[in-house]
Amino acid sequence: MRFLHTADWQIGRQYPRFPADDAAALAEARFTAVSRIAALAHEGGYTAVLVAGDVFDAQTVSERSIRRLFNAMQGYNGPWVLIPGNHDAALVESVWSRAKRLGVIPDNVHVALQAQVIEFPDLGFAVLPAPLTQRQTATDLTAWFDLAQTTAGLLRIGLAHGSVQGILAQDIDSPNPIAPDRAQRAQLDYLALGDWHGTRQINEFTWYSGTPEPDRFKSNGAGQLLSIEIAAAGLAPQVSVLPIASYEWLSWQEHVAVDSDIDVLLNRLAQLPENTVLELQLTGHTDLAGQQRLQAGLASAEAHLRSVQYDLLGLRFLPTDADIIALRADGYVGEVLVQLQDYDQNQQMDGARDALVILADILRDVQHTGDAS
How far apart are alpha carbons 371 and 373 in whole angstroms? Predict the structure, then answer.
């Protein structure tokens, strides 16, 4: 029997830190991920798809987003089993009650809003869900699994959303506790977890799948889902990790000390694939020529990559005497140039570096025009 395990789709998520076009593309990628999961489930002949919470990012997602989510799932006609997580908890009035009123939940999509066994006798398995009915709880909602009765011969599959105690307490998105040995206590053949946004194994029967589309600059194995193969009840499942993300999120911290460091950086930027979302922080120092090469390279990367966000506050701009002389600035313009240089080095004025580079570019353009004539 084979299952796909996924979680933390967070449909409707917004990306306010990004420019509007990048934010729209990243939000759209979450729908694309669901369509890819449906296609994988169909083409691979999977028994079911298990979705361990946080299907939606908030209770207030638009009606259009709700409809689009269930449309994206239409590529797989087998059973989907979903539980609410901390972002879309099964409140009295919730995104799930809205979806029900809209009549958009297909018959093959089973939304577990209560802690009760869902059996699929024709397919040979039963799901023990632990849906969140509030955003946070101090009790382990999987505790009832231990005494839950299922029909003999059916695989027992747990589905929960929260923090495995003693392992993820400092890093998990929500504090909802889960016992680390729940699969063993409840004699589960597999426990599918959500809330941790990266792929992570807890023990041979318990895994976090992570989000299928990265949403943070963390190297934690995001952008994947899990293929679970269970030969027979009581046997450890065979788990395979399946990359699925549209975008790769990278965070670079680079130090510039000599001219060649900029060349190396620009070459690395040019080699990145178009689906990269990059966060770049630069420290060190450079002269006027290096600053201008760097700006040109970053502009090229912004046009080539999905998104580039960079922080140059730690990079000191130190024009050399030769730079200043080469600009042939005298009189008032020369005084302004030197003053801007002082402001930038002493961090006395916001935008001094940008103004200095702009003025230098203007002076170079003037020189070029004069030389050409």
Answer: 5
